[in-house]
Amino acid sequence: MQGIDSIIYFNEVLPMNKINQNIIPYIKKFAVDTSWRIRYLVADKIMDISKGIGPENTKEHLISYYCQFLDDNESEVRTAALRRLTDFGQQIEP
Q1: C-alpha to C-alpha distance for 89 and 83, rounded to whole angstroms
Q2: Domain spans in the chain, listed from the N-terminal domain onward
Q3: I want to staple 69 with a disulfide (CB 3.0 to 4.6 A). Which of 41, 78, 81, 91 is the partner?
Q4: Does residue 12 contact residue 28 with C-beta atoms inside 8 Å?
Q5: How far apart are alpha carbons 3 and 40 in whole angstroms?
Q6: In this structure, which CATH number among 1.25.10.10, 1.10.357.140, 1.10.10.10, 1.10.486.10 belongs to the domain 2-92?
Q7: Strand positions, DSSP E, the chain
Q8: Which is nearest to 43 in space by CA: 76, 9, 3, 86?
Q9: What single DSSP character describes residue 59?
């Protein structure tokens, strides 16, 4: 999905205040989307998103969504989240 890739790109070029203001709301929107494919993409790219928004924003905004991915109804979303479990945990607590 182009939106997820755009988020990752903008995370690399925007200052943190713009990320908080403009990017975080879209991450939240995609993380709770009704389409499992969108949630899958967020779960699959969670490390790229996390690195772009920084550790504090990850703790504040992504942990709850990541936990929801681990308990998602769709096995593909759960699998994508589980593949990133170790890396995501290290991103939160190195």
Answers
A1: 11
A2: 2-92
A3: 81
A4: no
A5: 13
A6: 1.25.10.10
A7: none
A8: 76
A9: I
- Report the percent of the chain where pLDDT is more than 70: 98
Average pLDDT, the chain: 91
- With CA atoms as reference, report the closest residue to 53 among 28, 85, 20: 20
Chain length of the chain:
94
Share of the chain above pLDDT 90, in %: 62
State the DSSP string of 1-66: -HHHHHHHHHHHHS-HHHIIIIIHHHHHHHHT-S-HHHHHHHHHTHHHHHHHHHHHHIIIIIHHHH
Element (H, E) at 26: helix 24-31
pLDDT one-digit tens code per residue, 12-22: 888 889 999 98
Rounded Cα distance between 47 and 52, Å, is 8
Q: Which residue has the tokens 């928004």?
A: 53
- Token pair of 23, please? 């990017």
